Amino acid sequence: MTDKFPDIASPLRTKAIMNTYGLTFKKSLGQNFLTDVNVLKKIVSAAKIAENDDVIEIGPGIGALTEQLAKGAHRVLALELDKRLLPVLAETLAPYDNVKVLHQDVLKADLENLLAENLKNSTSLKVVANLPYYITSPIILYLLNTGIKFDALVVMMQKEVAERLSALPGTKAYGSLSVRVQYQMKVKTPFAVSRTVFIPQPNVDSAIVVLTPLRAKSAVPFDEAAFFKLVRGCFAHRRKSLWNNLKSIFGKEEHTKESLSEALSELNLSPQIRAENLSVTEFVFLTNKLHELKVL
């Protein structure tokens, strides 16, 4: 039955589906449909989808990536915000009995409860998605903050955001998002995706990012929430020195400045260094030292 029609992602079938249902693209939802089957297969390959994998897909659209995932995965749970697409997905994904589509906004969903109801006894859980550009970072951070043990997050996103996730200290792209993600995950960007393979065509190119949990962290903060807050504060004014950003966070009282100075000295950090030059581990050490000195 699955061989009766060409792949959903093929340009001809995508246009036929759009015409049949009278679909228009919603800019407010960042809808861009991928029409290159080879790219989709490369995404599935990058995710190393195996027959024991349960997959959460965010924003299945008309089912192009969902179909490729269903061919190799154990189960696929697709969360779609656009109600107009539910009858489309019911038809396009009808040949696959291992797919379930839910009308859900992932940022408002009780993901743990959804998994308990729809992916019971999962032994390997992955997220694979082509995320809307405007909401990529919030979704990534939401998934990391759930505490759910994902085996991998494999996400297509704007190339610029992908570069921020994988950026190294001392580079222009390195920022609080880089630190937040790299604290928890190993980041790889296996390949870029040209804007020309989407309809409508976006104004930027994309990239695939593969996030896998770090087996062991080189350092752990006394409190993760305090650590993340400190990192955001240190990058609040990128052109300012670490010292000036720390004073902005904690105040300029003399005893506070003395403790800040002591912390930097003990960590061999110059007050003039900028946040972008600190590694993830150095940020953790700074967090713990400030806590030790009762500043944080």
UniProtKB/TrEMBL annotation:
**Residues annotated to bind S-adenosyl-L-methionine:** 32, 34, 59, 80, 105, 130
One Pfam family cited in the UniProt record for this chain = RrnaAD
Predominantly, its location class is cytoplasm
Sorted UniProt keywords = Cytoplasm, Methyltransferase, RNA-binding, rRNA processing, S-adenosyl-L-methionine, Transferase
Q: Name one GO cellular component term.
A: cytosol
Q: Spell out the reaction equation it catalyses.
A: adenosine(2085) in 23S rRNA + 2 S-adenosyl-L-methionine = N(6)-dimethyladenosine(2085) in 23S rRNA + 2 S-adenosyl-L-homocysteine + 2 H(+); adenosine(1518)/adenosine(1519) in 16S rRNA + 4 S-adenosyl-L-methionine = N(6)-dimethyladenosine(1518)/N(6)-dimethyladenosine(1519) in 16S rRNA + 4 S-adenosyl-L-homocysteine + 4 H(+)
Gene Ontology MF terms: 16S rRNA (adenine(1518)-N(6)/adenine(1519)-N(6))-dimethyltransferase activity; 23S rRNA (adenine(2085)-N(6))-dimethyltransferase activity; RNA binding
Record has Cell membrane as a keyword: no
Name it. Ribosomal RNA small subunit methyltransferase A
Organism of derivation: Liquorilactobacillus oeni DSM 19972
